[in-house]
Amino acid sequence: MANLYDSAYDLEKAIRESVEFNELKTAFQAVMNNPTSRKMFEDFRNTQMELQQKQMQGLNITEQEVENARKIVELVQQHEGIANLMEKEQRLNVVINELSQIITKPLEELYGGQ
Amino acid sequence: MANLYDSAYDLEKAIRESVEFNELKTAFQAVMNNPTSRKMFEDFRNTQMELQQKQMQGLNITEQEVENARKIVELVQQHEGIANLMEKEQRLNVVINELSQIITKPLEELYGGQ
Ligand SMILES: [Ca+2]
Ligand SMILES: [Ca+2]
Questions:
Q1: What is the CA(B57)–ligand 2 centre distance, in A?
Q2: CATH of span B4-112
Q3: What residues of B are in contact with residue A106 (Cβ under 8 Å)?
Q4: Which ipTM score applies to this complex?
Q5: Is A58 left (phi over 0), alpha (psi -120 to 50) or beta?
Q6: Is B70's Cβ below 8 Å from some Cβ in A?
Q7: Would you indicate the residue range of the signal peptide (chains A, B) (predicted)?
Q8: pLDDT tens per residue, chain A (114 residues)?
Q9: CA A47 → CA A61, A63, A67, A69, distances in Å?
Q10: Is the pLDDT of residue B82 over 70?
Q11: How many whole angstroms separate alpha carbon B46 and alpha carbon A107?
Q12: Closest among B74, B78, B68 to B47, alpha carbons compared
């Protein structure tokens, strides 16, 4: 019987060595190494997090805020480096979601099987 | 380089074979096999999910609903089988959270390291 934590560390290592993670890392570092793209990306991130938090707290999001967010998304999508970073994030997210579905299968079967 | 999905399936197997998962399974089946405890547990679950959904949607939760939820929690905590099930759930949750922290370390390092 494999140890739970050994198995988790093996998976962590596999993620760290995966093509998807390393492509993300490269894309992230390219954006971070350029002050302009870094600031643009951080503004984008902060705006997204603020809106998410408001949504989770059930707070009102103004038309102005929606419009601002839309503009920032448009801006970052036109930036090649950030668009690339977002694509790599998306790809790794797909993988992580698939891994997560595999791992939580025992629980899903237990609670879904009744 | 270990394959990502092989590693995830190994971890899934380790979870399935773990003491914590098997204790939860036993506790869950004991509750489900008794119509009274099963109904009590399902009422509890449904009440919790309803409140969580309302919270996530930013909807108002009435005093009556809070009071109802409190009574149901009190009731299930006095039921030995359900109290045991909730303890086993709690224990597996702790393990799953620890595993999740291990697995997401590469991403945390990447985004936290700047
Ligand atoms: Ca790829
Ligand atoms: Ca135990």
A1: 36
A2: 1.20.1500.10
A3: 12, 15-16, 21
A4: 0.81
A5: left
A6: no
A7: none
A8: 568 999 999 999 999 999 999 999 999 999 999 999 999 999 999 999 999 898 888 788 899 999 999 999 999 999 999 999 999 999 999 999 999 999 999 999 998 865
A9: 12, 14, 11, 7
A10: yes
A11: 18
A12: B68
Q: From the CA of B84, how far away is ligand 2's center (Å)?
A: 12
- The span from the CA of A7 to the CA of A5, in Å, is 5
Any chain A CB within 8 A of the CB of B114?
yes
Give the pLDDT band (50/70/90) at residue B60.
Answer: confident
- Domain residue ranges of chain A, discontinuous segments joined by +: 4-112
Neighbours of A83 (CB within 10 A): 13
Nearby residues of A43 by Cβ (< 8 Å), 6 or more positions away:
A72
